[in-house]
Amino acid sequence: MEPTSTSPTPKALSVSQLNQRAKQTLERDVGEVWVEGELSNVSRPASGHIYFTLKDDRAQIRCALFRQRARFVAAPMRDGDQVKLRGRVSLFEPRGDYQLIAEAVQAAGLGELLAAFERLKAQLEGEGVFANTRPLPFPPRKILILSSANGAAIRDVLAVLAARWPLADVTLIPVPVQGAEAAPAMISALGLLNRQARLDPEQDVVLITRGGGSLEDLWAFNNEHLARAIFHSRLPVMSAVGHEVDVTLADFAADMRAPTPSAAAERLVPDQHALKRQLAQAEQRLHRSIQARLERDSQRLDTLRARLRHPGEQLARQRQHLTTLQQRLTRAMQQTLAQQKAHVAQLTRRLASQDMARLHRAESERISSLQRRLASAMQRLLETRQARLHSAARELNAVSPLAVLGRGYAIAQDTQGQVIRRAEDTQPGQLLKLRLGEGRLNVEVKRRYKKH
């Protein structure tokens, strides 16, 4: 062993600290770059990420394209493909692997078009051309479609619209969707539709669509003037160009973007089958609610019917009360008379033991006075009892249905004694009984009249 040194040992970094510094240095000093090379060892695990090697004839580098970015790559990535990719140089710390984190991948040779796309996108975004966010009418009354009349996209759109919402009025404005004449044709058609919209308020929304294709095939939808025309359109515009990974300036300028033509049709109109199911469920809930209400009201009606008493019973109670009052009045008068008679007898006996002439005169005067008081008291008592009797009679008459009958009304009953309240509860030819203020009638229904 070598002899130990007496000088202090410098503080050492851990492996993870070293890798962390290396990663920070690479990401800071190199940053984002464009790299061209050949794909090899392309791997797609269940996570959705894509791992591969990018190489040329002298070197190679490990690369990772994470799932969030991988879904925007239009062309399939296969071993041997020559590609350009934009990414950040980094380092995978656990293994110390130097790698490139890819942000975008394109076939080699498309760099100039993408660069032009990015420049024009940044310019239009800075001018606010991508600021449209108007809500689309739902469901629209009239849909105006700018697309090729022979493409698969229009067939998909029309099929979805017919299946989901056949009430929509769909008008196809055939325009070329590829080549040099495509953008001017779409701009002209969009201008014409906006001028017509001033005269026809039924026009609701414009759909600009076509199927998938290469970047060159879709380049007409990256036209600066078309993007501006979409931005200035008075009618709201939905754009559905290509597949989900295809993004154009027309998509950014539109009020809404759909990933595919079929998805655009699904977003434009509701699903009639879903609405029918909702209506059926609402109908069932309404039926259950009505049934529950009828059951509650039926129970309440049964309770009220059980509490209802026949008018005859009420009259009988009132008659009984009146009889009781009369009996009490008779007993009171008899008791008063008996008391007065006893008092007279006592006075008569006292009179016998006194000076008859003087007593006779005194008692005669006293008797006359008592008779007058008795007559007055009986008169007042009789008047009071009569007033109470008349009051009770008036109250009785107020609640008596006979008083109503006395004013010219009648109670109609069927042969089972059930009261008839509505004309529609009878049938022509049915026999009825009418109870009047005085007497009864048997009648036959000749004709019913509805209530006006």
Automatic annotation (TrEMBL):
Q: List GO BP terms, alphabetically.
A: DNA catabolic process
Annotated coiled-coil segments of the chain: 272-335, 360-387
Keywords from the named record: Coiled coil, Cytoplasm, Exonuclease, Hydrolase, Nuclease
**Which Pfam family would be a valid example here?**
Exonuc_VII_L
Q: What class of enzyme is it?
A: hydrolase
Cross-referenced InterPro entries = Exonuc_VII_L, Exonuc_VII_lsu_C, OB-fold_nuc-bd_dom
Residue span(s) of domain OB-fold nucleic acid binding: 13-105
One GO CC annotation, please?
A: exodeoxyribonuclease VII complex
**Which reactions fall under this protein's catalytic activity?**
Exonucleolytic cleavage in either 5'- to 3'- or 3'- to 5'-direction to yield nucleoside 5'-phosphates
**What molecular function terms (GO) are annotated for this protein?**
exodeoxyribonuclease VII activity; nucleic acid binding
Per UniProt, residues of the Exonuclease VII large subunit C-terminal domain are 132-443
> Which CDD domains does the record associate with it?
ExoVII_LU_OBF (cd04489)
Compartments, record wording:
Cytoplasm
Just give the chief location class: cytoplasm
Q: Under which EC number(s) is this enzyme classified?
A: 3.1.11.6
User: What is said about its interaction partners and assembly?
Assistant: Heterooligomer composed of large and small subunits.
Q: What family is it from?
A: Belongs to the XseA family.
Job description of the protein: Bidirectionally degrades single-stranded DNA into large acid-insoluble oligonucleotides, which are then degraded further into small acid-soluble oligonucleotides.
PANTHER family this protein is in? EXODEOXYRIBONUCLEASE 7 LARGE SUBUNIT
Supply the name of the protein: Exodeoxyribonuclease 7 large subunit
Q: Which gene encodes it?
A: xseA
